[in-house]
Design goal:
This protein is an alpha/beta fold and 517 residues long. The protein has 19 helices and 22 strands. The chain is 44% helix and 13% strand. Helix 4 packs across helix 10 and helix 11 runs parallel beside helix 12.
Length: 517
Amino acid sequence: MSDLSLRRPNRRGRGGAEVTPLLPPITPGMVGGRYQPLTQSEMERIHHLVLRLLEDLGLSQVTPTLEARAIEAGAWVDDAGRLRFPRALVEDVIARTRRKFILHGIDPIHDLEIGGQRVHTGTGGAAPTIMDFNTGKYRESTVADLYDIARLVDRLDNVHWYHRSVVARDTDTILDLDMNTPYACLSGTTKSIAVSYTDGNSVRAVQPMLDLVAGGEGKFRQRPFCTAVCCHVVPPMRFATESCEALEAAVLAGMPILLVSAGQAGATAPAALAGAVAQACAEVLAGLILCNIIDPDCRGIFATWPFVSDLRTGAMSGGSGEQALLSAACAQMAGFYDLPNSVPAGMTDSKLPDAQSGGEKGYTISLAAHAGASMIHECAGMHGSLMGTAFESYVLDNDLLGAILRTVKGVEVSEDTLSFDVIRDVVMGAGHFLGHPQTFSRMKTDYLYPEIADRRSISEWQDAGARDARAVARDRVQKILADHYPRHIGDDVDNRLRAAYNIVLPRARMLAGNGFW
């Protein structure tokens, strides 16, 4: 149960007595961790390899400023120019880093407690293409697509944050891309957002935008609602210079940092799954050490994202069983370290919202959730091994995520749920449970009902037109995007942002009745 759920005020019943509100079947942040693909001794062996990789091999190409900080903290640079991290430093950072923190939404109602194997699900990725809603053909993605997906996510309960899932291909410069992306995200949702920044200059340029939306200079730091996605390494075991500059600037700005290592097993990480897990853990820990050296109170997210190659072709296979195991094992290693973490799942290889898509998303997300991942990224909307996305898939995946999260909640065993008195009442009385008070009570607290999945009889479904789930999801997409044009950013702030930045998204496109939807 989420701590946020516990803060809901009790209602007053008749006579003024307090009545505890009924909690829904699922809430953000239910505790996972029951599925354990690795034994304790196997996790310890991986950990020893992680320490060896960091101390005996290290990482190359660190930036000069981060190198200076690391050396001051106890690291050293060898004759080959590789930054090495002594075991004592690594274990010290693991011991003192933040175990939990609040990932803020723009609206506090969307605040999430990250850590402690509390499971959350959201978007992610950087797809360069999107399936056009009208033609069904893939095309390059745009700023307007970013905004429309944000508006959709804003209305999907089981998508807990919006990490930009497409790249706006209609921006002219890198700076335009890095400014228009958070603008489109912030305009469409009040959930927490996550954005990649090319370098430190982009982070510093966007900071005034975040402050303006937050209510004034310095306000963003008080409730940082935008996470910086930092692919700080280029596997194997090499720092990414520009991303490290962005990392340093983002930590100094008070942003949460998603520290991503995205090696590909069999290409930029070992084909052996245990080795791929170990390399990813070492690369992410290197970034976490740098973050903690800059700010010991930073909000670092241990994002081990090793991907899988189809070794016949070398192509990424995001929907494979091996990917499910890799992500689950990485989640378990993060639990071993007790670190707030992220893994990828739901990255189907299918190009359509079809049976392949549902199957691959179902088992990859389920294993990650049950392994206790704090944040499961890329689990809504993605297709083609992260190269594409489709509007209706966000709605379909919202249904799927709800069902998976319900399985994470598990079976409550208590005197009340064991139900001896209820069984006795029914056996000695009506002979069925349909009208029993417990049935009416539990139907709202124990059972989750899908919005899209069809549970009618075959005859009822046929009489209603025999439509499949994708057709129903398309109706839902159209309804949301035709009506939901939020004004999360007021006119005054919007005018100031447009004066300061080259905002590509026309204001007319952000008003109901614009003719697009």
